[in-house]
């Protein structure tokens, strides 16, 4: 009997040793629009089935296998999957992406993922509650509704002044999710909502977004 008990104890100790050798703790920071911390994102280890959530600063720590996959999920955000292996650092940064329309931003605030204060620092927007038809053109909408924004005669929109001596200082235009060279063709009455992204919050649109991004959604959903 004692031999059986001793054997069981040895097996348990051995399994614990193997378990500890095959596991690790991954520390992470979860953000959106590159710099806004995201609270309450569910973090799940696929192999060990461990779970946690990000804190108010977007931080998390989770125990996982050396060969595992961490999944991050949150409403209005695209799911993110991170492969864990011997090349993965113990500390990772995860960017949760979502299209920053007014509805999505309001949902993200409502679910508690980001704060209203953080939102106003990153994004400005106006929607159909405004009478866009009263404006002469789309540039007139921008001039009269967004601070620190300048519209040049050639249709170049500059957000918060010039940002480069050599590269273009014109904001990037995204209309219904598609990059476009000009927005002069857009009739004010066709505008559903306009968002202005600046600084790091615009970086999800690539290197051309450095001067900022003008997001325009049309009522018809086409352009």
Give a description of the structure.
The protein has 223 residues and is an alpha+beta fold. The protein contains four helices and 15 strands. A five-stranded mixed beta sheet has the order 9-14-15-12-13. Strands 1, 2, 5 and 8 form a four-stranded mixed beta sheet that branches. Strands 4-3-6-7 form a four-stranded antiparallel beta sheet, with no helix packed on it. The protein is elongated and about 65 Å long. The N and C termini lie far apart (80 Å). The N terminus is likely disordered.
Distance between the termini: 80 Å
The neighbouring-strand order within the major sheet is 9-14-15-12-13
User: How much helix, percentage-wise, in residues?
Assistant: 10-25%
The Cα radius of gyration reads: 24 Å
Q: What are the SSEs and their pairings?
A:
Elements: H1 2-21, E1 23-32, E2 36-37, E3 42-45, E4 51-53, E5 59-65, E6 68-73, E7 80-84, E8 91-96, H2 102-110, H3 116-122, E9 123-127, H4 138-145, E10 149-151, E11 157-159, E12 172-175, E13 178-180, E14 191-197, E15 213-218
Parallel strand pairs: 1-8, 12-15
Antiparallel strand pairs: 1-2, 1-5, 3-4, 3-6, 6-7, 9-14, 10-11, 12-13, 14-15
């Amino acid at each position: 009997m004692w031999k059986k008990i001793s054997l069981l104890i040895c097996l348990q100790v051995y399994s614990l040793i193997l378990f500890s050798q095959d596991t690790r703790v991954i520390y992470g920071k979860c953000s959106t629009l590159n710099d806004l911390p995201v609270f309450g994102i569910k973090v799940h280890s696929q192999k060990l089935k461990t779970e946690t959530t990000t804190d108010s600063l977007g931080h998390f720590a989770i125990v996982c296998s050396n060969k595992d996959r961490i999944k991050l999920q949150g409403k209005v955000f695209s799911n993110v999957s991170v492969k864990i292996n011997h090349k993965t650092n113990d500390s990772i940064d995860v960017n949760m992406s979502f299209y920053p329309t007014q509805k999505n931003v309001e949902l993200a605030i409502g679910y508690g993922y980001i704060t209203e204060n953080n939102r106003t620092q990153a994004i400005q927007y106006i929607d159909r509650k405004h009478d866009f038809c009263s404006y002469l053109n789309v540039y007139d909408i921008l001039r009269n509704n967004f601070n620190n924004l300048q519209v040049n005669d050639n249709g170049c929109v500059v957000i918060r002044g010039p940002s480069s001596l050599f590269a273009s200082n014109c904001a990037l235009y995204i209309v219904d999710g598609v990059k476009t060279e000009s927005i002069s063709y857009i009739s004010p009455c066709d505008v559903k909502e306009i968002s202005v992204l600046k600084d790091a919050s615009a970086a999800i649109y690539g290197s051309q977004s450095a001067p900022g991004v003008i997001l325009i959604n049309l009522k018809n959903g086409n352009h």
